[in-house]
Amino acid sequence: MSAKSQDNVFHRIGQARMKWGLDLPSDFAPIYREILPSLRAHEMEQRLNSCPVGDGDRFECVVAELFLRLLAPGVDPLTSERRYKNAGARGDLLLPFSLLGDEVRVLREWKQAHGLRSILVEAKNEKKKASVEDVKQVFVDMQTACAGNLAFLVARAGFTSDAIREMAALWRGNKGFIYPVDEMLLLELSRATPAQGQQLLFRHEEIARKKFRSA
C-alpha cells in the first residue's frame, strides 16, 4: 500500500472516531507510520484486558477497533456499523469492504473463496461458552445480511463442544464458514501488527478447518 493511500485510510479511521465514539487514532503524521502498528497493538491488548466480562457494549467497541486496525485499508470505518439492522433484528458488527479491499490479501482470498463483501462479527462477552443457539444465530445473520459465506463468532469464554460440531456441520455442508475466535486468539490478535494479525487469521482459519474435520 502506498504512503498516500495509507494516510487516506488513517484519515478515514480518524473521522470514524466521531461517528462511532471509538478510541481510534487521530494523529497520523507520516513520521509515525513505522511505529504506529506496534504502538496500537500494545494499546489494544490493554483495552481488551481492561474490558470486564459482561460489558457487551464496551467489548463490541474493542472488537470493532481490532478488526478495523488489522484489516485496514480493506474495511471502511465510515460505512461500518455496530448494532446494524438485519431483517428486522440487530446484529453486532458489520464492516463492509472498502474500495481498497483487494489490497489486503486475506480479504482478497476470502472474497474469492466465500463471496465475502463485508466482515460480519458476533461478539459474546459472557462467562458462559458460546452455544449451538449462538452459532445458529450467526448463520441466520450471515444469510440475511448477504455479506458472504464467512462470519466471525467472537466468544471470550470459548465454545461448547456442541457449538463446534454445529459449525463443523455447516462447513461440511457447504453452508458457510463460521470462524471461531476465543479469548486466546483475541489476545494474540490484539498484540499483533496488521501484517502479523492477517497471518494469524490465515493460520487459525486452517486450524479451525482441521478441528471441524474431526468434530
What does this structure look like?
Strand 2 and strand 3 (89-90) form a beta hairpin. The chain has helices at residues 3-20, 36-49, 56-70, 105-114, 132-145, 161-172, 183-191, 194-214; strands at 81-82, 85-86, 89-90, 93-96, 118-124, 150-155, 177-181. A 5-stranded mixed beta sheet has the order 1-4-5-6-7. The model is unreliable at 21-39 (pLDDT under 50). The chain starts with a helix and ends with a helix. It has one domain (3-214): Trna Endonuclease, Chain: A, domain 1 (3-Layer(aba) Sandwich), CATH 3.40.1350. By secondary structure, it is α/β, with parallel strands linked by helices.
Spans with pLDDT under 50 lasting ≥5 residues?
A: 21-39
Number of strands: 7
Report the mean per-residue pLDDT as an integer: 82
Q: What is the CATH-assigned architecture?
A: 3-Layer(aba) Sandwich
Helical residue percent band: 40-55%
Could you name the CATH class? Alpha Beta
Gross morphology is globular
Order of H and E elements: HHHEEEEHEHEHEHH
Number of helices: 8
Q: What percentage of the residues does DSSP assign to strands (E)?
A: 5-15%
Key descriptive features of the protein:
53% helix; 7 strands; 5-stranded mixed β-sheet; 215 residues; Trna Endonuclease, Chain: A, domain 1
Secondary structure layout:
Elements: H1 3-20, H2 36-49, H3 56-70, E1 81-82, E2 85-86, E3 89-90, E4 93-96, H4 105-114, E5 118-124, H5 132-145, E6 150-155, H6 161-172, E7 177-181, H7 183-191, H8 194-214
Parallel strand pairs: 5-6, 6-7
Antiparallel strand pairs: 1-4, 2-3, 4-5
Helix pairs in contact: 2-3, 2-7, 5-6, 6-8, 7-8
